[in-house]
Amino acid sequence: MENIRCLIIGGGPAGYTAAIYAARANLSPVLYEGIQPGGQLTTTTDIENYPGFESGISGQVLMDTMKAQAVRLGADVRRGAVTAADLSERPFRIVVDDGTELAADSLVIATGATARYLGLPSEEKFKGMGVSACATCDGFFYRKKDVAVVGGGDTACEEASYLAGICNKVYMIVRRDVLRASSAMQERVLNTPNIEILWNCNTREVLGDLNGVNGVRIQRKDGEVFDIAVDGFFLAIGHHPNSELFSSWVNVDGEGYIITDGKTSRTNVEGVFAAGDVQDPLYRQAITAAASGCRAAMDVEKFLNSMKQN
User: Fold this and answer.
1) pLDDT for 103
2) Is 137 one of the annotated active-site residues of the chain?
3) What pLDDT shows up at residue 36?
4) Terminal C-alpha separation, the chain
5) Residues 58-67: contacts with CB within 8 Å, 24+ apart?
6) Structure confidence by residue, pLDDT tens digits, 73-104
7) What is the mean pLDDT of residues 13-32?
8) 77 strand-pairing partners
9) Among candidate residues 156, 174, 167, 157, the one with its CA nearest the CA of residue 230
10) Of 11, 134, 123, 120, nearest to 76 (Cα)?
């Protein structure tokens, strides 16, 4: 069984940043990238709100660059997904999908969160070509255009309100005849002139061509089917934090997000830290994930140093 001082699980901005900081602190970090190296950002074509890139950068290139930086500094970045974990005692026991067994003195969980999609083939087809699960990330590309937002909760209302400030028109596709959002959010949406709510509606298909999304086919509860012309299709039906493997030991909230101690990355299990979207139900941005990866590595360094002194 391989013994590792600092094990990082997850290859997104949080994981790679944790690896960069841990490598510079001589913690000999080992990072397993998971089933989607680079995380959700690899499905984003252009990123224009990550500091340091005046003309923007593709999500894939940004993640490849972070990974290369971590490797150059000495991090051991490996392909593979963790399939089992035992955090009942230290060193923690971890099993990877190729059967490798690991013993880790410290652990950074940076497994991210997965956006919930409708499950339509056309939705998958146009992902990154007009289909998005993050208005803050991608809304800028639809300035003065028409877009649609799916959902009726607080997140959907927030996304619709944000998009209404930069887009020509925003359609909200709501499957019920009421919004599930808070009263304040409902009032904001209902009082925004360029937001139109399509009540009792479900998405049947995302329409498009080689250039990307150009419409949505919708069905009302009464059976009526109609199309709307839009350039962007935003999902706002929630995210699922990838915390299941660890939730028997670390505390999670009602949605499954790992609970950390105040402004630190510490969990309730000594030696286990969480960073990125797996513990962030609010911001879910590449820059905040990277920042939390930095905090996690610094917290790990303090923890391992304290273990030396005891």
Assistant:
1) 97
2) yes
3) 76
4) 25
5) 62/13, 62/286, 63/11, 63/12, 63/13, 63/16, 63/37, 63/38, 63/39, 64/38, 66/13, 66/16, 66/17, 66/20, 66/290, 67/11, 67/16, 67/37, 67/38
6) 999 999 999 999 999 999 999 999 999 999 99
7) 97
8) 31
9) 167
10) 11
List of E strands, 110-193:
113-115, 131-132, 146-150, 169-173
Identify the structural domains of the chain with CATH numbers, from first to last: 2-114+240-309 (3.50.50.60), 117-235 (3.50.50.60)
Closest CA to 281 of 167, 158, 186, 119: 158
State the greatest distance between any 2 C-alpha atoms of the chain, in Å, as a whole number: 70
Q: How far is CA 237 from the centre of its chain?
A: 13
CA 214/CA 231 separation, integer angstroms: 5
The residue annotated as part of the active site, out of 6, 105, 137, 231, is 137
In order of 165, 175, 290, 294, the CA distances from 193 in angstroms are 11, 21, 37, 42
6 part of the active site: no
CB contact burial 276-288 (16+ within 10 A = b; e otherwise): bbbbbbeebbbeb
* 150-172 per-position pLDDT tens digit: 999 888 998 999 999 999 999 99
Q: Which helix (H) or strand (E) holds 243?
A: none
Per-residue tokens: 247: 């939730």
Question: Residue 262: which of 284, 286, 279, 237 has the closest Cα?
Answer: 279
How far, in Å, CA of 71 to CA of 74, rounded?
A: 5
Whole-Å CA distances, 11 to 31, 125, 202, 222: 7, 24, 34, 45
Of 138, 146, 277, 299, which is the active-site residue? 138
Given the residues 134, 157, 201, 294, the one annotated as active site: 134
Which residue has tokens 């997140």?
155
